[in-house]
Amino acid sequence: MVDTGNAEIAISWWERGVQKEKDGSMNDAIRFYREALKTHEGVEKLYRKKLFEEHELEKKLEQLHLDSIDSKNETAPPGDQAEADEDDSQKDPCWLLDILPPDVLSRIVHYIVLQSGESWLNLSLTCSTFNNLCFHEMDPYRTFAHLIYPKQHYDEMAMDLNGISNIGIWEKEFWGPNYRKMLMERPYVKFGGIYISVVNYLRYGANQDGSRSWMNPIHMITYYRYFRFYPDGGCLRLLTTDEPSMVVPHFSKDTPPRNSEMCRWSLGFDHGFGHLTITRSSSKYTFVEELQIKDQGTRIHQRLKWLSSVIIDKEGEVTECSMKKEKPFFFSRVRSYLPSSAAH
């Protein structure tokens, strides 16, 4: 049961805070908001409800004025009205969303999608209204696709071999206007985080001289591979025994860690359009690593599966590296990596 006296006082404080915020006096606004919350902890919801009721009253008065002649004919039967009121009372409405027009809500979704895919998902979970706008309309999928796919780098030779001269035309031929299907079927490299591969294996050691043990010691070896991709086609690569907690916070091409290497990456059209090639060169060798972008359960394009790793010398001789111990990479989102409007 709401204490009417306290509620009215709290709303009054809150309204003064809103006015101060509009005037640009944030310190005063915060002070009034605090007073309102001290008076009634649910004041914000009460304030929104009051706005909604005032908005509804305005609409009814306007409708009454416009349709006064036909108002009797349009009035619902008492029984139906009572049933409708009962249904409405069981709902927990979002007052502000009911006030805002659909085009404003769609713009909100648009800007949230531009922030990150994670923000897009979180917004959809807030209420049924945003869930419908986020995942039952094509616009958010189009916004997301137009954000991420222009940043993908496709190998020019692979494009020539597949007879593709224009990526845009190729997109339309495969998916047309169905951007949701495109996002599900067309892999892409993610930039708002890091790909990590963890490799564990056992190594048998030797006994020390003079030891009477019948068994050789066994060592558990753990090492990590890190990939961080950039929209300019660069990829920061590191092989180390350092754990993610030591590497991830500072893993950047601006401050590259010791023993890291800057590579180039590109996508091909094999393996369901998810053929990823990473290359780097030294004075004597060229290193080429090929992986496939795959799903991880319900998380699309979240995993990198090894295909091959080769070393090419100056004479063109190719040496294949063993993939026996290697493990796939898994993508982990890192908030500090997200640039402005990087939604993936």
UniProtKB/TrEMBL annotation:
Domain F-box protein Hrt3/FBXO9 C-terminal: 175-248
Keyword Membrane: no
GO biological process entries: SCF-dependent proteasomal ubiquitin-dependent protein catabolic process
Region listing for Disordered, in residue ranges: 68-90
SUPFAM superfamilies per UniProt: F-box domain
Segments traversing the membrane: none
Domain of life: Eukaryota
GO CC, one annotated term: cytoplasm
Signal sequence coordinates: none
Keyword annotations from UniProtKB, A to Z: Ubl conjugation pathway
Protein name as annotated: F-box protein Hrt3/FBXO9 C-terminal domain-containing protein
